[in-house]
Structures are given as structure tokens and as C-alpha cells.
Amino acid sequence: xxxxxxxxxxxxxxxVKLADEIFGLEPREDILQRVVRWQxxxxxxxxxxxxxxxxxxxxxxxxxRQKGTGRARHSSARAPQFRGGGKAHGxxxxxxxxxxxxxxxxxxxxxxxxxxxxASSLIVVDxxxxxxxxxxxLVSSFASLGLTNALVIGxxxxxxxxxxxxxxxxxxxxxxxxxxxxxxILRRNTLVLSxxxxxxxxxxxx
Length: 206
Fold this sequence. Notes:
The protein is α/β, with parallel strands linked by helices. It contains 7 helices and 6 strands.
């Protein structure tokens, strides 16, 4: 698949041939859903916890005698039915993470890239560099490319000026190639890859 390369100024800078085994697959929603679910479960904190009866600081002595009161039989005041007692079956701190095979994760990334390519929401940029960290200049460059909601993927090292300028623009995420992931690709309308990012992806899936 041939895609034309553009500059940040919106000028033509040649073309690049994208590998069909990475960008030309038929996207499968089930694989994308599995990878996104795995990502979101991994980042979920799971720090919610309530106090059980063993965590309550209260006497464990029997509340009153077993027989002769006409009332129900009770022992500890830490039991869940009493005010100030522990919570029964409450949430406990845990990890929500689950396993996903490495091959499925890799396939999910390929399908996400293919989905953007198929929807014509993929732009390849020659270089992601700015002379100075000016957000206004970058906004006008993005406007010339028609970008309002995008994920921008650079090479292994991001240009400092570009990263600073882009950090102030809403609905635009900038990541190095190591940080590329399915969730961020799908949550933005347009995927912008630098030439270096395309080369790194092809090398990664070789």
C-alpha cells in the first residue's frame, strides 16, 4: 500500500510503501476489544477497600447473656448487622490485571493500524521537528493538515520543541514509537506517523 508523505507545513514529500501484513489486514473487532480490555484492566488501580469485622477495633466480648433476655442470640458487636460493625463481602484491594498472549497483543496493534489505514485516517509525516516550542505555529500546521483530534507517533526520541508545543493542544497526544498502543490509536480520530515510526514498526514486526 502506497501512502504519500507530507511535511508539517502540508507540502508533498514523496511517498512510502506500507507493509500489507501490518497496515493491510481486515480489522477484527473481537481482537481489538480484547486488547483494549486488557490495557484498561491493567491500568485500573483496584485500591478500594472496606473494613471487615476483623479490621474493626471493638470488644469481642459477648454483648449479653445467651438466655433469658428474650432477644436474639448475639456475640461480637463487630458483626456486620450492627452499626459500626465490619462490612460483609466488601471490596478488597486487588489487581484487576489479567493475562493476554503476546501474539494477540501484537495482532491487536496490527489490526488497529490497519483500521486507521482502511478508514483513510492515517497520515505519514516526513519529520516531527520544530525550530522553537511555539504552540501557535504547531496549531496552524495541524490546521493545514486538517488535524483536530489526533495521536502523533514519533521516532525513538521525540523532538523537545515539538513535544512541548503539542502538550498544550487539546485532543492531541504525542508518543514515541515505544509508547504506541491500541487504546490510544482507537480513541483518537487520526493517526499521524513519522517516517521514523513507520520504519520502526516494520522492523518490529519483521
